Amino acid sequence: MPATQSDTPTLSAWETSTIDVFVRAASLIGLPRSIGEIYGLLFCTPEALSFDELVERLQISKGSVSQGLKVLRQLGAVKLHYVPGSRRDHYQPELSMKRLVRGFIKDQFEPHLLSGSQRLDNIEALIQEEGDRASRDHALSRLGTLRSWQKRTRKLMPIVMAVLGGAKFFDKEPTDQETII
Amino acid sequence: MPATQSDTPTLSAWETSTIDVFVRAASLIGLPRSIGEIYGLLFCTPEALSFDELVERLQISKGSVSQGLKVLRQLGAVKLHYVPGSRRDHYQPELSMKRLVRGFIKDQFEPHLLSGSQRLDNIEALIQEEGDRASRDHALSRLGTLRSWQKRTRKLMPIVMAVLGGAKFFDKEPTDQETII
DNA sequence: CATTTTGTTCAAGTTTTTTTGAACAAAGTT
DNA sequence: AACTTTGTTCAAAAAAACTTGAACAAAATG
């Protein structure tokens, strides 16, 4: 069989524009263009799409699609959809804003907050090395500011989730020295 | 006068660590390292700092400091502080989390939301070019999803600001109610 | 078990972003 | 007016992030 030479992958006009919206959104939250494209095309398409269909329709490399889907899976932004009679994985977009936001927060935000806590404890120790009293006092005051910001950020998360649909986030007391990772 | 040859700009240990926290935070919200460094040093220092002091203590170029301060001013993250007897501009950090967040949202977030609205209207028009009924219906349904996401995002902003402003929504138990706001 | 299908990995190439520093402008001094 | 101080601009260099594609692995098929 001669391979079909030039199958225009033709995304329709509205699909192109919609994908563009997701490319921008991705960039806004620090994700690469290819991830916006992949999620965008899944978002536009009624049926679940396979790996190959993403490569072909978006005209991007297998490597990009593979890595992009990996991140999207990790974020919970795409779901595997079993298609009978096909060995390929098929993907569908997560359409719940709440779940999308939760995935993003848990994956990209929470880790920074947690590691942040340890860093601040560390800084507190370093401040003790400061020579004079006035310096230490000022430094401790700023550290207090930092801790209050962190606390308020933590407080915000559950409220955000609640507004988006009603879920809880940081139920526990997070400030422990021996907190695991 | 012979110029002092090698004045170690020596940031103290706690300053270095604190600046590191801001460099990470900057990167998290998509701002370059140098901006994190500048804000971080201002945050650490009791007195207002001049342009030159930032260049010298951080050991980064004048260009970076100039551009960094420009962005920070635009975000409302630093304030000019008049120092009598000096021609130089002196800078102090904005320490109110609420104002910092508001500056960021207004400058980096809202514009995208607004241009987003126009884009969605545009997409609606493009959808009319779709050939068959079923395609149009599906596309319109997805457009509806997009609009609902946008609406909820808008709704969220004032709530975030209210929480950061000190308004106490739920002081004790976090988020269990169905009656938010 | 050899082959094909499906998808991942990663080094190298490409693109984008950030930083630098020299030239320039604006305003203050002498 | 000439000179100094202060800070901005922008083209080029450097660094970082992203994408590609070929080699590879894993599993299904014949």
Q: What is the number of helical segments of chain A per DSSP (H or I, 4+ residues)?
A: 6
**Major sheet: arrangement of strands of chain A:** 1-3-2
Order of helices and strands of chain A: HHEHHEEHH
* Helix content percent band of chain A: 55-70%
The CATH superfamily of the largest domain in chain A bears the name Winged helix-like DNA-binding domain superfamily/Winged helix DNA-binding domain
- Give the biggest beta sheet of chain A: 3 strands, antiparallel
Largest chain interface and its two residue counts?
A-B, 52 and 52 residues
Number of domain units of chain A? 2
Descriptive report:
Two copies of one chain form a homodimer. Chain A is elongated and about 70 Å long. Chain A is built from six helices and three strands; from the N terminus they run ααβααββαα. The longest helix of chain A is centred in the last third of the chain and has 32 residues, at 133-164. Chain A is 62% helix and 6% strand. Chain A has 181 residues and is mainly alpha-helical. Chain A has two domains: 13-93, Orthogonal Bundle (Arc Repressor Mutant, subunit A); 97-164. In chain A, strands 1-3-2 form a three-stranded antiparallel beta sheet. Mean pLDDT of chain A is 88; it is low at 1-7 and 171-181. Chains A and B meet through helix 1, helix 5 and helix 6 of A and helix 1, helix 5 and helix 6 of B. The structure holds a DNA duplex (30 and 30 nucleotides).
